[in-house]
Amino acid sequence: MPGSLRPLLVRLGACISFLLFSASWCADAQESDTLVAAQVFSVKALPVIRPSEEVSLAALSAAPSQVADVLRRFTGVQVKDYGGAGGLKTVNVRSLGSEHVGIFLDGIQIDNAQNMQVDLGRFSVDGLETVSLYSGQKSLRLQTAREYAAGAAVHLRSAVPRHSGWRLRLRTGSFGTINPSIRWDKALGRHMLSTSAEYTGSNGRYKYPYFDTTLVRENGDLRSLRLETQLSSRVQGGQWRLHLYTYGSERGFPGPVIRRAQGFPFSAERQADQDIFLQGSWTQDWGSRYATALRFKYANNYTHYNTHPEKNPMALPYDLHYRQHLAYLSLAQSYVLCDPWSVDVSADYQWGRLDSDVGQFVRPRRSTLTAAAASRLVWPSFRLAAHLVYQGAWDSFDQRQAGGWTRENAFRRAWMPSVSVFYAPFRFLEADAFVKRTYRLPSFNDLYYSLMGNAGLSPEQAFQAGMNLRLKGKAGRWDGSLHLSPYYNRVSDKIVAIPTSSQFRWTMLNIGLVDISGLDIKAEGSYARDLWKAALALRYSYQQALDHSTPGSQTWGNQIPYIPLHSGSACLQLDWKAWTLSWDTSLCGGRWSRSANTADYYLEPWSLTDASLSRTWKRLRAGLHLRNVFNKAYQVVQGYPMPGANWLLSLEYNW
Amino acid sequence: MLVFAACQKDPVPSKDATLDGVSVDVSMFSKSARKLFVLNEGGMGSNNATLDFLRFEDGKYISSAFRKMNPEIGAGLGDVGNDIAVHGDEVWIVVNNSGIVEVISAVDETEIAAIPVPTPRSIAFDDKYAYVTSWAGAYVTYGTDYSVTDSKNPKGQVYRINLGTKKIEGSVEVGYQPEGIAVYNGKLYVANSGGIASQLPPTYSYDNTVSIIDAASFKVSQTVQVEVNLKNVHATSGGTIYVTTLGNYWDIHSGLYAFPAANPSQVARVTGVGIKEENSYVTASCQEGDTIYCLGTATEFDWSAPREYYVWSVSGERLSLYPLELEGTPYGISVLEEHILVADAGDYFNPGTLSCYSLDSKKDKRWSVSAGVCPGHFALY
């Protein structure tokens, strides 16, 4: 080892000690799925850029039941919500579009090749330890190539129980909501077995303003059952984990609020889903320099969609079944060249197919190879990383030709470079910056949907540049931090649906261009004294997302749909002894539902306040959560009213 | 005409006289009509169908007239305005995804009746009834409970609405997903598209028939095969029935077909003399007198190509091609006194425009005015 590195190592050691005690952010620096049992903490496990937001679910008093509820508190994030228990909830980060946001569970992507929309309303927070958002480039050792390739990423991390036990949780509330769950953790020597089951039922009936009157939302009910089991084990220098997950649901879609003749229902649409996946990982250190992570996944998703025309004379008669298969294998390798410098090489292969009884279905198949190389220089106060990702996707599909159907192939590829830098000149100041370019592949719906697909589409491109500035300080009982994140994004070759010569025949083209400039600000402060603790978090987001698709068009230079220029939230939490009171108000500024920013399409600003009170006993925890306390009528998506004031009672017992 | 003159001298101005709009040049029109209604379809599920009209008296283009004249109807006109027609002093508007046929006063746009009809598409009149084509009619026996005949691939219906009582008086089953309808000499001519049947088992095919209904008995008297995916129907005073087809979007082109009412089986494609094959396609059509005007694009199968639209017409034996250079995404047309009004739907998501071109000279756009989302249907009063 070169002598010049020794002083550095001393500094590094000092800093590691500091980090160990500075639990506030060390905890999120370490990823349990890349946890190295032998080395408690290693500098090479330090992230180059930390998540822009991270929530530890154990610390949340107003425990939300869905991942979507956690994400809507984050800065720079829009959760698109069609309302109710069964309504689709997707997440958009910094106006990139939800297709650019990768959702990862323990480092493995939850993918939906059909439409690239992952419904976050389906993922329970039960059994999760943390939810993190990366707006910049995530750069940790041994991450999968797909983690490098995501424009932005939401990471869900499963909890790894520390000891055997049972947990019973029961939630009940408005709209006939019943949500019992049970979890059993069992330590078997070095292995840990964790099994849980959760049922959710809701009638989805809530009042909403229907133009001049008030109606009750119908056909918005949901029943779902989740069963999962995880087996994890620590071995010498590594760990492995297996995760089997099944989810079944049956739900109604209440449809948009429109004028409808009396006697005709708004909707009778139903959808049933059956999802199953098995995933696993094995992370191993081979000596002090070399480590590998092997991961795999098999997923099978089945959807049955039925418009039930016999119940709704306004429905178009569709009774469709879809099945997706996905197989995934990933190998990540990390090698320390000399202590501050390490390189990573990761390669993922994924194969997916979609089958359906939709008329003239083209039976698409896709093989995707994603390979990433990363080089990192990691000193405690200065870190630099460069990444290069290659993604190649081979599609095959049926195509109608004169004289019959033929099997066609298509190939798309993209190179995605990114650079991240981190600098902490003082203990109270940290700064990081990143530049990245990513692509998202066109979805099967974009390419092959029989009424509007265009098999000739290119991947959609997202360029991002951003920085984060964090100031933190501590004075006596006071603790505070300020986080500033300016950024610029450009989404080009954006896939946009446009009509062809017929209203019935649309197509997709790479014609969209959006320029996004934004600023996220987060200020947090806390005060602790004796049995009291008070914490306040203020968040503000400014997002200017301008449509620059067609110069000269009436929408050029306008704000794109559903992105508010201003949004923010205030969250106050008071703890006293075993009691916790929290208050959460979020504000969404005015938006437009079209890029024509006219009065006809202006959506009024709204504010939403939730409050909760909870108490913890030795084994028991009880909470009362009031949502939309002021009973505000609001819509996140135009035509889809959200529930008014409602409550949820939760009881949790551990033994 | 007498009635018309009497109305104009009416000392009491109509209630909508106070509505103001954008001024356009109407000097080329003879003012034999008072208003040109423009129906903006809106986007499905967005509840933003709107009614505009051009007032010939002062050249004002007035937007969202239905909402302005009926503020008590909070939901507005509704979801997807699919057809509009004037009958007497009434305007009948087919609001597809609201399941409503809205009847308003042509004089001041105030509501007269809102008639529930399941998935209504198009409308035509004789002297007693309005006839409305409907896609979902097979599911429902109107007025009582919904009776299911075929939940997988049902045929459509034509509903008959009494012009006086505004009540439905029966329905008749036609082909798959009926679209346009025209009335001629006691017969109703219905174009069946099969737009949904083409995506459903067992056949996955478009309909290609015109159902001919005898108005007196209200029964289908004859079914004529034309070509796949039929759309609009026009009947001339001389008894020629014209039907447009949209084709199947990959190897059968759109076009215009004609047959004599006296002998419906003599179907022939309108092409040839004076018009090349690639200049005889049809994406939209309209009728002025006995002339049928069609909008088409030569590259209709090539989705990546920039589209150039043309307008052609047929009047008896005479075919004409107009050397117009239309802008944007023309979606609907209307011809009035040697001028063509073109509804440009833009991206179908944001508000479109209405433009007026002179039919006889190239590049002569007279004016353009901002319309609602997806303008496409016209009615003259």
Tell me the strand order in the biggest sheet of chain B: 1-4-3-2-29
- Separation of termini of chain B? 12 Å
Shape of chain B: globular
Task: Work out the helix count of chain B.
Answer: 2
- Overall residue-averaged pLDDT value of chain B: 88
Question: How would you sum up this structure in a few lines?
Answer:
Chain A is mainly β and 655 residues long.
Question: How would the blueprint of this fold be written?
Answer:
The complex is a heterodimer of chains A (655) and B (381).
Chain A (H helix, E strand, L loop, with lengths): L4 H17 L1 H7 L23 E4 L10 H5 L5 E5 L7 E5 L7 E5 L2 E2 L18 E7 L10 H5 L2 E7 L6 E9 L3 E12 L2 E12 L4 E4 L2 E4 L5 E14 L2 E15 L17 E17 L3 E17 L12 E20 L2 E16 L8 E14 L3 E20 L2 E23 L2 E12 L3 H5 L11 E16 L2 E25 L2 E25 L2 E16 L18 E11 L2 E10 L2 E2 L9 E2 L2 E11 L3 E8 L7 E3 L2 E2 L4 E9 L1
Parallel strand pairs in A: 4-7
Antiparallel strand pairs in A: 1-6, 2-3, 4-5, 6-7, 8-9, 8-35, 9-10, 10-13, 11-12, 13-14, 14-15, 15-16, 16-17, 17-18, 18-19, 19-20, 20-21, 21-22, 22-23, 23-24, 24-25, 25-26, 26-27, 27-28, 28-31, 29-30, 31-32, 32-35, 33-34
Chain B lengths: L1 H7 L13 E2 L11 E6 L9 E6 L4 E3 L2 H5 L11 E7 L2 E6 L4 E6 L5 E6 L3 E6 L3 E6 L22 E6 L5 E6 L4 E7 L2 E6 L16 E6 L4 E7 L4 E6 L4 E6 L9 E6 L7 E2 L14 E5 L2 E7 L11 E7 L2 E5 L7 E7 L2 E6 L6 E8 L6 E9 L1 E6 L1
Care to describe what's here?
The complex is a heterodimer of chains A (655) and B (381). Chain A is mostly beta strands and 655 residues long. In chain A, 6% of the residues lie in helices and 59% in strands. In chain A, 45% of the residues are buried. The model of chain A is unreliable at 1-43 (pLDDT under 50). Chain B has a domain at 117-269: 7 Propeller (Methylamine Dehydrogenase, Chain H). Residues 1-8 and 137-151 of chain B have low confidence and may be disordered. Classes of the chains: A mainly beta (655), B mainly beta (381). Chains A and B meet through strand 24 and strand 25 of A and loops of B.
